[in-house]
Predict the structure.
Amino acid sequence: MNRGINKPGAAKLRPRCAAMAVGSLPYQEIEPALDIVLETTPEVPAWPQLPRRSFLENMYVQFSEGLPGLKVDIVAERLVKRNEVPDTELVAFAEALEGNDATFFAVSPDHAAGLYAFPTLYGRLRRPVDVIKGQITGPVSFCLQVTDEDRRPILYDDTTRELAAELLTARARWQQGFLQAVAPAATVLMMVDEPFLAQWGSGYLSMPEDVVMPLLDRVVGSLDCLVGIHICGGTDWSKVVELPLDLLNFDAADHLDAVVAHAEALASFVAEGGMLAWGAVPNDERVLTLEPDQAAGSVLEGVGALSATGLVSREDVLLQSFVTPACGTGALPIPVAEACLRLTAAVSSTVRSSVL
């Protein structure tokens, strides 16, 4: 499979454990969000998701506009898909898909203020960058979070699940175009956020493989930029690497065991040109006392496990890696979120200075 650095146009991308944010930040205003991105992750600028600004910036609401039959209940903070969908909405959606209507699939400014501030953020960078990061809510998590009027997740409705996959794919394509227009010389990396996949196989949720894998493949395989997945917990990485992905972002702070357990699958992924994003920095108050070399230890331990398979060299794993927080910081107190991102930058520097 042609992945990551082996893809046309991405050959120059060697992140070398660069610091990268996951997505959400706890600010209500744009300016401090841009400031912390520029301070801590300038090599991989990403537009900040700001869920505290409005329920419309909740990660599930943010990309939901236009789904036929969907009602956003702001007071109850709930997404509900009506059981009876007006034909007019279905026709409008189908026509927008067929006509590749960029206006229909654009994210509205009130749903993503940070995205619309990305041109300002990019203009404040001191030097050109090789990669810029966008993000979209993954189809599995989206379809588990959105329910019908009987509180049944739309994942289990074949028709609505298909519509959601089409919506998220079209919205990701629109976002790719938006970001690429801001930075024509950079490579776009679109991250697919799939928090529910941390419970895949746990028995708490029904996520049949014959539903999950085709749904993920439908979305990530339809994008022509670099595509990564973020799962903030342990999962079956041997299944995930079967998807046409270029980057895997995982919680290495608390779930390194899941990485080590699937070391051969991940080592093969890197050998094929794939990249890894080590979520080595916990997204909680531990960051107030944790030293950079302590957090860097999980990266180096994981790199050692992958290189021990003999399938990939230690150097290649490090060259094809990023360092991130374990998850988004949108629910944290602002001082803790800022400490998390600053520690991420420090861990990146620590790893680079010690082994690269």
